[in-house]
Amino acid sequence: MDQDLLKITEEKKKISDNVNILEIGPGNNPSLSINFLETHKCTYHTVDFTGLNSLNKYHQHFISDFLLTELKRSYDIIIDRCAWHEQDLFTRHKYVKKIYCLLKKDGCFIGEHAIYHKSIKFEEDYLLFDEDKKVLYQQKNGIIETVKYIPETQQIESDLKLNKFEILKFICDPTKKIICNRSIPTPRQGDPDHLYFLTQKS
Ligand SMILES: C[S@@+](CC[C@H](N)C(=O)[O-])C[C@H]1O[C@@H](n2cnc3c(N)ncnc32)[C@H](O)[C@@H]1O
C-alpha cells in the first residue's frame, strides 16, 4: 500500500520531515515499509504492533488497545487499515472521535473498512452474520464473540461526517474483497467489499 498511500497523501499533504504518523492496528502487515521510513524522516507510532520488529529502530510503538492508550502527541496522518471495524457497536464512535481529537488541524485520517453488500455470505460454520445489526460473530471454544462490524457504505459516510471529518476520497471497489476470520486467503464473492477513504480534519 505504500505507493497508494504516498500518491494519495501527496495530493493533499507532502510527507516531509517532522511529520507525525500514527498507525492503529498494523498487526504483522504495517502500511509503511522500511524503505518509506528510511527515505522520510517522519515520526511513526503504532498501536498494537504485533509483528515485524525490524521496523523498531525507525519508530516507537505501544502494544496496547488504542482506546486505552494515552497518546500525548497530535498527528498529521492517522492510518487505520481494518482495525476500526473490529470495535464493537458501543466503542466504534468513541474510537473515531479519538482519532479526530488526535489529529492536527488539516490532518488526514486514512482508512480501510469491510463493507456490506446484498450477497454477503460466510460459509464457515464458526462464523455467524447478523444482517440486522451488521455484526459478524465468531464461535471459538464455545464462546461467542463479536469480530467485525460490516455496515453499508452510507453508515461509514455518516459516522465520518458526524465526527466532522471532511471526506476527500471514498472508494468502494466491488472487485476488492476483505477476507474475514478465515485462514484461506483466496477471496470469495460472498466476502465483504472493501472501502478505502481519505478524510481530513478541517
Ligand atoms: C484485520 S487486522 C488488520 C491488520 C493490518 N492493519 C492489515 O491491514 O493487514 C486488525 C488489527 O487491528 C488491531 N486492533 C483491533 N482493535 C484495536 C484496538 N482497539 N487497538 C489497537 N489495535 C487494534 C488487531 O489487533 C489487528 O492487529
Bound molecules: S-adenosylmethionine
Largest sheet: 7 strands, mixed
Please report the number of helical segments.
4
Number of strands: 10
Query: Class by helix and strand content?
Result: alpha/beta
Kindly report the name of the CATH homologous superfamily.
Answer: Vaccinia Virus protein VP39
Give the helix proportion (percent range).
Answer: 10-25%
Which strands sit side by side, in order, in the main sheet?
3-2-1-4-5-10-9
SS strand fraction? 35-45%
Integer tally of domains: 1
What would you say this structure looks like, in words?
The protein is α/β, with parallel strands linked by helices and 202 residues long. It has a single domain, classed as Rossmann fold (3-Layer(aba) Sandwich). It contains four helices and ten strands; from the N terminus they run αβαβββαββββαββ. The protein has a seven-stranded mixed beta sheet with strand order 3-2-1-4-5-10-9, with helices on both faces. Strands 6-7-8 form a three-stranded antiparallel beta sheet, with no helix packed on it. The longest helix is centred in the first third of the chain and has 11 residues. It starts with a helix and ends with a strand. The relative contact order is 0.16. The model has no long low-confidence stretch (mean pLDDT 86). The site of S-adenosylmethionine has 15 residues, from loops. S-adenosylmethionine binds next to loops.
